[in-house]
C-alpha cells in the first residue's frame, strides 16, 4: 500500500495548482507545435511534408516511459521525480529553441518527452495518494481544466507567434512556466513513496519498448526516412518478434509490466484494440489540418491557428455531453456509429479545396472535433469499465501507452501517405500537393472506419454501469 500523510493547509491548496500547471504545459505543447511546422521546415531547409518526426519523437518517448513512471516514483519519491520531470521538459524546450537542424530538434524533443512522460502519470499519482477518495473527483476536475484549455489556445497561439515573432517562441514560452512549476513543486508537492519495494520488469520493459520503437521507425521509414522496403520489412518483423516475445514471457512470470490476463476482460480487449486502430486515423488530424491549410491552401500561420478553434471548442462541448449520450444509447451503438462517422468526416476533408467556403471548412472542423472528443471519451471508458481494482492501475497504464503509441503511428502513417502520394512531383506544384492531401485524408478516414468492426463486438448491455465507473473515465 502507498505511504500517505495529512497535507498541511498550504500544501493542500497549492498541490492541485502545481499539477494543473504541469497538465497545461504538456497539453499546450501538444498542439502549439502543429501550426508552426511549415515555418520550422522553411527555417531548417526541410520539406514541410516530412516534419512528422518532430511530433513522433515526443509521442514515442512518452509512450516508452509511461510504463516505468509508477515504479520510478515509488523508488525515488514523487517530489524529486515531479521536479525532475518539469526540469527536463523545460530543458528540452530550451534545446528545441536553440536547434539549428532537424536532427537536433528531434533530439531535443526526445529530452522534452522524457519530462512529459513523467509529469502526467506522477501528477495523477500524487493526487491519488495525497487526497481521500471523497475529494478525488473534485481535485481531478480542477486539474484537468487547464489541460482542456491547451488544445484551445495552442494552435492560435502557435500561429500568432510564428507569424509575428519566430517559431522559437513556441518553446521559449515554456521556460517561465517551468521555473514557476519547479519552485511550486519544491514547496507544495509531498514526497510520497510506495511501502512495498516491487521489482521492476526490466527485460519486459526492454522487449515492449523495442517493439514500439522498431514498429514506429518502420512506419517512419516509409515516409520521412525513405528507407528501402527491405529494411522496413525487417524492422516490422523485428518489432513483432519483440512484442510476441514480451507476451509469451509475461504469461509465465509473477509481476509483468502488463499482464496478458488483462485481455480476459472482454471490454478491455475490445477497447484496447479499438483505441489502437481508431486513433491511427484521428491521431493524424492535428498534424494534417494545419499543414493542409498552410502548405496546400496558402493560409498564414495565424489564419491556420484560428481555423483550429472550432475543432477544440466543439471537443470541449462534446465532452460534457458524452455521458448522457452513452447512458442513453450504450457503448456498442455509440462507438460503432461514431467510429463510422469519424472515418466519414476524415474522408470528407478530402473534398476541401481552394473553392471550399471558409464557413463550411469551419463547420467541418467543428463536427470533427465533437465526434473525435466523443470517440476518445467512450473508447477510454469502455476499456476500463469492467476491470477490477487489482487490474485497474495496470490497465490504465497500458491504455495510456496504447493511446500515445497509436497517435504517433497515426502521424507516421499520415506522413508516409503524404510522402507516397506526392513522391513524383515537386512541392511547388500546389495542385498536386493538394491532391496528395486529399488522398491522404480519404485513406486515413477508411483506416478509422475499420475500427467500427472491432467496437461492434461489444455486448448490448455494456454501458449501463456508467455511474459506477465514473472515476475510471479518462479524458
Automatic annotation (TrEMBL):
Listed GO MF terms: transmembrane transporter activity
Q: Which GO terms describe its cellular component?
A: plasma membrane
Keyword tags? Cell membrane, Membrane, Transmembrane, Transmembrane helix, Transport
Q: Which InterPro entries match?
A: EmrB-like, MFS, MFS_dom, MFS_trans_sf
- Localization per record: Cell membrane
Where the record annotates domain Major facilitator superfamily (MFS) profile, the positions are 15-463
Q: Tell me where the transmembrane regions lie.
A: 12-33, 53-74, 81-100, 106-127, 139-161, 167-188, 200-218, 230-248, 268-292, 304-322, 329-352, 358-385, 397-421, 433-455
The name this protein goes by in its record: DHA2 family efflux MFS transporter permease subunit
Give the organism the record lists. Answer: Shewanella polaris
Amino acid at each position: 500500500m502507498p505511504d500517505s500523510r495529512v497535507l498541511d493547509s498550504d500544501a493542500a491548496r497549492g498541490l492541485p495548482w502545481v499539477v494543473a500547471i504541469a497538465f497545461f504545459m504538456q497539453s499546450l505543447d501538444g498542439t502549439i507545435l502543429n501550426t508552426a511546422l511549415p515555418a520550422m521546415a522553411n527555417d531548417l531547409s526541410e520539406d514541410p511534408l516530412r516534419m512528422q518526426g518532430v511530433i513522433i519523437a515526443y509521442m514515442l518517448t512518452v509512450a516508452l516511459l509511461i510504463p516505468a513512471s509508477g515504479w520510478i516514483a515509488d523508488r525515488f519519491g514523487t517530489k524529486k521525480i515531479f521536479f525532475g520531470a518539469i526540469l527536463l521538459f523545460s530543458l528540452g524546450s530550451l534545446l528545441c529553441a536553440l536547434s539549428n537542424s532537424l536532427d537536433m530538434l528531434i533530439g531535443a524533443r526526445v529530452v522534452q518527452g522524457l519530462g512529459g512522460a513523467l509529469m502526467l502519470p506522477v501528477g495523477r499519482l500524487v493526487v491519488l495518494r495525497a487526497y481521500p477518495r471523497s475529494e478525488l473527483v473534485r481535485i481531478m476536475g480542477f486539474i484537468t481544466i487547464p489541460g482542456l484549455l491547451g488544445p484551445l489556445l495552442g494552435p492560435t497561439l502557435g500561429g500568432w507567434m510564428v507569424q509575428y515573432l519566430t517559431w522559437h517562441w513556441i518553446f521559449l514560452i515554456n521556460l517561465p512556466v517551468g521555473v514557476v512549476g519547479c519552485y511550486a513543486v519544491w514547496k507544495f508537492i509531498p514526497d510520497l513513496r510506495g511501502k512495498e519495494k516491487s521489482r521492476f520488469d526490466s527485460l519486459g520493459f526492454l522487449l515492449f519498448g523495442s517493439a514500439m520503437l522498431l514498429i514506429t521507425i518502420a512506419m517512419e521509414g516509409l515516409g520521412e526516412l525513405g528507407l528501402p522496403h527491405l529494411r522496413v520489412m525487417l524492422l516490422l518483423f523485428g518489432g513483432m518478434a519483440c512484442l510476441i516475445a514480451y507476451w509469451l514471457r509475461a504469461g509465465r512470470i509473477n509481476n509483468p509490466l502488463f499482464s496478458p490476463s488483462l485481455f480476459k476482460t472482454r471490454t478491455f480487449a475490445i477497447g484496447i484494440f479499438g483505441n489502437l486502430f481508431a486513433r491511427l486515423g484521428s491521431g493524424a488530424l492535428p498534424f494534417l489540418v494545419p499543414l493542409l491549410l498552410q502548405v496546400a491552401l496558402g493560409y498564414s500561420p495565424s489564419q491556420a491557428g484560428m481555423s483550429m478553434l472550432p475543432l477544440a471548442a466543439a471537443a470541449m462541448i462534446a465532452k460534457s455531453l458524452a455521458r448522457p449520450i452513452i447512458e442513453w444509447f450504450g457503448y456498442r451503438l455509440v462507438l460503432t456509429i461514431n467510429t463510422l462517422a469519424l472515418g466519414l468526416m476524415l474522408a470528407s476533408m478530402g473534398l476541401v479545396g481552394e473553392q471550399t467556403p471558409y464557413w463550411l471548412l469551419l463547420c467541418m472542423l467543428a463536427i470533427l472535433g465533437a465526434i473525435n472528443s466523443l470517440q476518445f471519451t467512450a473508447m477510454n471508458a469502455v476499456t476500463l469499465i469492467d476491470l477490477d481494482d487489482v487490474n485497474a492501475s495496470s490497465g490504465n497504464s497500458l491504455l495510456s501507452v496504447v493511446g500515445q503509441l497509436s497517435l504517433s503511428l497515426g502521424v507516421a502513417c499520415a506522413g508516409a501517405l503524404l510522402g507516397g502520394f506526392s513522391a513524383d512531383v515537386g512541392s511547388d506544384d500546389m495542385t498536386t500537393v493538394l491532391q496528395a492531401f486529399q488522398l491522404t485524408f480519404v485513406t486515413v478516414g477508411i483506416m478509422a472506419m475499420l475500427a467500427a468492426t472491432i467496437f461492434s463486438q461489444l455486448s448490448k448491455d455494456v454501458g449501463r454501469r456508467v455511474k459506477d465507473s465514473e472515476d475510471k473515465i479518462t479524458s
